[in-house]
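Much of what follows relies on a compact textual record of a protein's fold. A record is reproduced here so that you can trace the correspondence yourselves:
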Amino acid sequence: MVEQFDVLIRNATIVRPAADLPEVGDIAIRGGAFAAVGGSIDGQAGEIIDATGLLAFPGVVDAHQHWGIYNPLEEDTASESRAAAQGGVTTGLTYIRTGQYYLDRGGPYAEFMPEVLARSEGRAHVDFGFHVAPMQLSHIDELESLVDEFGVCSFKIFMFYGGHGLHGKSDDQSAFLMTPPGERYDVSHFEFVMRGLAALRDRRPDLADVVSLSLHCETAEIMRAYTEIVEKDGSLQGLEAYSASRPPHSEGLAVTVAAYLAHVTGMPNINLLHLSSEEAIDAAVRASHTYPELDIRREVTIGHLLTDFHTAQGIGGKVNPPIRSRQDVEALWSAVEAGSVDWVVSDHACCKAEKKFGDPADDVFLAKSGFGGTEYLLPGLITEARRRAVPLGRVAELASRNPARRYGLATKGDLAVGLDADVALVDPDVTWRVRAEDSESAQDYTPFQGFEMECAVARTVLRGTTVFRDGQIVGDPTGRYLRRPQG
């Protein structure tokens, strides 16, 4: 009897995470999951996709996005998930918090999260989930309910908020973060969050491996002092000035503090986000050697891997931590090649030009922080990896498997029987240049403008259904909210 499938992808060059070399073969999909992967598969299907000459990657798990930070969450969920699908991303994990931006409200997450889910429901073109930041002491008491009621098992600390807002100096922290009177968002709060998560892991051994804490590592006091120095001196401009105002050793010091706090509180599952400099990577690697009991993971963004403060297109490339020097870019790639980076993300934060740029528009210190880029994550990573002879199997680890495993996405991240049938089919023989107007994102500029890509996503398949093909989004939004940890 001939076996029946929903979809058969024929003659793909299959890229498995950590595989030494891709192998040409077929992929069979049934009921939204992989039914068979590799070799010549006998069977019939309602849809047959000829993938001759195309690379088949696991759907990308872009584990660091910011839907709703500058635009209404319901709008970003629609438009920015389209950009994600355009780039071969099938799962987006978004950081969210109380306070200014996002929903512009404080209070308990028991009231906040239902609104988050309601605003995003039915609008996404890719599957999605949320990371949550405990901003006030009462949020620590909500950690277990965030896991059980809302499927959130990953949390975040913004270390630089101690004396800074999102874009610069902040003298009224409580107003910015909308925290209760008398509370401080400082190192002691970071400690208490870690102790709360450690206690949760002790109470719930079933969550011990999947509950993790991510940290944005910059030091507010150093940034405040150096911003004053750079602005007073005036010799540096643009992204170079912004990098100097938030110097790399600010990252390194924050990494060291974070690791020591994790050590003394017994909270081992630590993710160091968007490491941007040689100093930050060095501090992160040293922390792992110093505290071997910690399970420290290291993240880098595609923006920091592809651009430096001379090559990024204008101050639209302002982001925290800043775009750095070419020396830092090379250090990050050395870490990728050495296995010292665990995953690569976009840190996608759609900020339209009308909000991004201040008056005057060329003053980097008046610009908003963050930019989009999820649509360039996989093409950019493959392009530069091939130039540097980094194996494609390593790319699949960085873009898909590693973040899926860390963040409790048991059905994502690999081309394997039983997992969600998420596939990014990539044409390795197409060369094109980035133009903001070609993106599905609502953002109308990009610091990647003019960058040459040497591959292109030809088709994105989400749980067996094509959501992007030949340059176009296909069909209505079918992305699902992912409650984690998945079984």
